[in-house]
Amino acid sequence: MLNGTTGEAPTTSDREKADLVRVVVDAVAGRAVVLAGAGSYDTRHATGLARAAADAGADGLLAVTPYYSRPSQDGVLAHLTAVADASELPVMLYDVPARTGLRLSADSLRRLAAHPRITAVKDATGDPAAALRLIPETGLAWYCGDDGLLLPFLSVGAVGMVSMAGHLVGRQLAEVIALAEAGEPERAREVFRSVLPVIDLISGTGNGALRSKLALSLLGLIPGPAMRLPQLPAGAAETAEVRAALAAALGPR
Question: What's the pTM?
Answer without folding.
Answer: 0.94
